[in-house]
Amino acid sequence: MSTILEKIAAIEAEMARTQKNKATALHLGILKARLAKLRRELITPKGGGGATGEGKLVFQLLDLPGIIEGAKDGKGRGRQVIAVARTCSLVFIVLDVLKPLQHKKLLEHELEGFGLRLNKQPPNIHFRKKDKGGINLNTTCPQSELDIETVKTILSEYKIHNADITLRYDATSDDLIDVIEGNRIYVPCIYLLNKIDQISIEELDVIYKIPHCVPISAHHKWNFDDLLEKMWEYLKLIRIYTKPKGQLPDYNAPVVLHADKTSVEDFCNKLHRSIVKEFKYALVWGSSVKHQPQKVGIEHILADEDVVQIVKKV
After folding, report:
1. Distance CA 263, CA 87 (A)
2. Is the distance from CB of 305 to CB of 294 less than 8 angstroms?
3. How many CA atoms lie within 13 A of 291 on its CB side?
């Protein structure tokens, strides 16, 4: 493992020495590809790895040890800590509100080096290997960094000489490498800016405008409600409350649905698969309907905190 770390350090040192311009773009592309391959060996060492199955919805809050500089290379058990973060649906990063940018950049650098992409979407790049025909590059907009020679050079590092590539935006060599590697984890992240009891109201107003951030005070338990709402938003989950006939809604045990599966049918299947067969219609209270209640069919799309009463066939 030390050999890999030495190679990584050598490449990073060479990249730091190399000025970034058009003349060096090809060389930097090669270095980035080699660095990505070495980091892959750290992320997925030979002989390791296993498949994980999809099960029922379970919430688990993990308090991980702090990440120090060099964690991506194994310092302070960093690789084990970041490996756990790669399995999460949402990451909280707690920062000192008095010096947030310094720590934020350090943590992002360590996580990026281990294949995590925070609050980013996968690159809009089509990549397909083929048996023959060489490298075919198509672009839908002007490219400031990637041209056919740079693309071929990066692909050659992976021993890929036949492939179709379409760049649908102004992509970078890092974006292309991420697509080729195929092991990047794109995860939402919320930055918790702690100790807001030590700053002014004016400073707090500014902090509220920073993307992906929630100002809190862990000591005084301030603003935890905002944090909870942001968590639900970033996890893309919605809460649906059940209402048995003649009873009040059950607000203590919501049915949790993912944002891409929020129909009444999805709600019924969460309760029990047999309900769909007996379904007649549903009464819905909430923001997804105009009238309170409103009679809807099985394809109706529910909204967060709707109340639903299922009416079965007689």
Report:
1. 27
2. no
3. 5
Interatomic CA distance for residues 291 and 199, integer angstroms: 45
Instruction: Please compute the mean of the pLDDT values over residues 70-87 and round it to a whole number.
Output: 71
Assess contact for 90 and 159: CB atoms under 8 A. Answer: no
pTM beyond cutoff 0.85:
no
Round to whole Å and give the CA distance between 134 and 157: 15
For the cut 70, the answer to whether the pLDDT of residue 104 exceeds it is: yes
Tokens representing 265?
């049918």
Q: How far is CA 81 from the centre of its chain?
A: 17
Please give the structure tokens belonging to residue 84: 């756990």
Residue indicated by tokens 């996890």: 235
Taking alpha carbons only, the member of 89, 80, 150, 82 closest to residue 113 is 82
**The pLDDT of residue 66:** 72
9-24 per-position pLDDT tens digit: 888 888 889 888 878 8
Query: What are the pLDDT digits (tens) for 193-237?
Result: 999 999 999 999 988 888 999 999 999 999 999 998 899 899 999
pLDDT bucket at 2, cuts 50 / 70 / 90:
low
Res 55: pLDDT = 42
- Asked whether the beta carbons of 180 and 127 are under 8 A apart, the reply is yes
